[in-house]
Amino acid sequence: MTNQAEAAPAKLDAAVLKIAGVVVLGAIMSILDVTVVSVALPTFQTEFDATYAQVAWTMTGYTLALATVIPLTGWAADRFGTKRLYMTALLLFTIGSVLCSTADTIGQLVGYRVLQGLGGGMLMPLGMTIMTRAAGPERIGRLMAVLGIPMLLGPIGGPILGGWLIDVASWHWIFLINLPIGAIALLYSWWALAKDSPEPSESFDFLGMLMLSPGLASFLYGVSSIPGEGTFAATKVWLPMLIGGLLVIAFVVYSFRPAHPLLDLRLLRNRNLTVATVTLAVFTIAFMGAGLLFPSYFLQVRGESTLHAGLLMAPQGIGAMVTMPIAGMLADKVPVGRTVPFALLLIAAGFFTFTQVGTDTSYLLLCGSLFVMGLGMGGTMMPIMTSALKTLTNQEVARGSTLLNILQQIAGSVGTAMMSVILTNQLNESAVIPGVTNPEDGSPVTEAGAAIASHQNPAIAQQLPADLLHRGLQFVADSFATTFWVGFILTLLTLVPAFFLPRRRQESSMTESDAAAAPIVMH
DSSP string covering 133-171, please? Predict the structure, then answer.
């Protein structure tokens, strides 16, 4: 088997590309959904009369659901077959999308997003398992480049598509659009994928899942409740955080006991895997958390339409489009320790501009910075994951990639919750306008709140003094800048573990059977 892998052609043949079409289509659905929703968060705030921290749970709940099903996917694929499970995931994701469009409250929308995430979380690891079986381990770098297509289309097409649908129709259509795409993907999968041949599988760590998933959800719920309660001392804050923290600690202690734990933390004895994991986790917290706020800045500070906000985000995806295919090929040849630090410096350079944002910062400067950040993004995530996989020995590949994937999703959830809490706390410090209350619930109105609302309701701008609205808008811009400073500092901190990434060429430890088992995911 190994000799066959070594003799495999460098290029991906037609049979592999046919299967890649299935995987890419499913991944586009899953990844587009993240970026489409990013431009809708301010709309959700208005529609559901919620804070940013509350609507951010539409992202946090989705990524937590992804983290929950990733380890379950490998076990279920062995037991039920990849084709059958992949089509089930597509169906679950599509049903969840339709339900999201029917939500009447922010709580319902978050619940339906969790259901959607349970399907979306299986699409990428299942797709990668199908693809690695078809392509073989020696073409893993080129494979990652092909499957980087959804990552390229997501940052470019997602915000534009989401903005256009909200502008010409309503927010409901950012979810309903998945119905025809899901139907096409189901038919394509039925036609293109080979018939299943399920095999006996390892036992699944249900006890570990019952500790880790509720523990993370409880902890993040407590964190996201801070802005609404105004203090750590509130029961709604400290109690969920305490329960969640204890469950996560219990899981860490427990995970060293079972033969096949949900997360095999014993693999962290592998230095290269540990460095890759820490680098990826810190980077994801910084970039995924703060990155979701970029379109919100254009919407809430600059008063752009959702479509224009989406178009302004396009340079980031274009930048990634330039470097990601190159990085995928170089990952097979050049040690990541020699490339990733430079990519991170590009991200940090672009990020710094956003720490200086005001009410009239040049769009040319902002779009140029997004392009530079995109260049860095394309050279960061896939090379790190490829390097980590190469260090794993037989029987470790599937468990190691699962560990990377889950920690990446957890880091994304933490980053989203953390940045939304920081921004909400900053906005809550805005001065209250004397004598002005919200007509719906009688609550006081802040200068920042009035400034944001004036973009969507011009009548507010006519009723309040111009200097008050300008002061409120400047406060909102400063709040975003403060939050971006946190993301910028975390990005710089990512350079610390990145300098410990391998600087010598690594020979792959994977055999063809190992590659077939590896459920890699990229979000």
Answer: HHH-GGGHHHHHHHTTHHHHHHHHHHHHHHHHHHHHS-T
510 within domain boundaries: no
Q: Is the pLDDT of residue 228 over 80?
A: no
Q: Which amino acid is at 422?
A: I
Cβ within 8 Å of residue 279, ≥6 positions away: 340, 384, 494, 497, 498, 501
The whole-angstrom separation of Cα 227 and Cα 422 is: 8
48/120 same-domain check: yes
What is the per-residue pLDDT for 96?
A: 93
349 neighbors 372 (Cβ within 8 angstroms) = yes
Residue type, 146: V
Say if strands 444-446 and 432-437 run parallel, antiparallel, or are unpaired. Answer: antiparallel
Note the pLDDT tens digit of each residue in 373-384.
999 988 887 788
In tens, the pLDDT along 437-459 reads 766 666 788 888 888 888 777 77
pLDDT at 148: 62
Residues 4 and 128 in one domain: yes
Name the strand (E) or helix (H) holding 84: helix 82-100
- How confident is the model over 64-96, as pLDDT tens digits? 887 778 777 777 777 787 888 889 999 999 999
Count up the domains in the chain and report the number.
4
Torsions phi, psi of 436, nearest 5? -110, 130
Residue range(s) defining the domain that contains residue 348: 263-430+480-504
435 by DSSP, 3-state: which? Answer: strand
Residue 356 shares a structural domain with residue 445: no
At position 408, the amino acid (one-letter code) is: Q
- Does residue 256 surpass a pLDDT of 80? yes
Q: How many whole angstroms separate alpha carbon 400 and alpha carbon 267? A: 7
Element (H, E) at 432: strand 432-437
